[in-house]
Amino acid sequence: MLKSEPQEKADVRHSLSVCDVMRDNTNEVIMKIEGLLPSYIENFADLQEESLRIARDFFGTCYIAEKEFLDNMGVDQKAIETFDKCFKIITKTTLSEIDMMSSFQKTLVKNTMSAMKSYDDYVKLALSSYAKMLEYVTTMTKT
Fold it and tell me: Looking at the record's lineage, which domain of life comes first (predicted)?
């Protein structure tokens, strides 16, 4: 009785190109970063919210602790009014600077997006020319 010899398993693999490797691995990294964006934004918003809450609580606590003390000191009302006017100027300036910074950030993002679009258009044009050159070289080497 002859034992049947095991058949060799055919090694069926699809052909893998350098471009496949680069594309697939790059996409994996990009997808990981994209997946983390909402978390980054939420974490930063939580951090900002907490720092503002702490600042608000600090001044609220100072208000409660110092109001009676300062009221009993008998500070001249005109001095307090002058302090209020000065503080309102500082507040108005700060609010204006916040608005300017917000506008600057919007403009920065808009300009960066425009530059990225220009770069993307240039890369697509360069890749199109590169593909045409490769096609030409391929046809020349076959003849």
Answer: Archaea
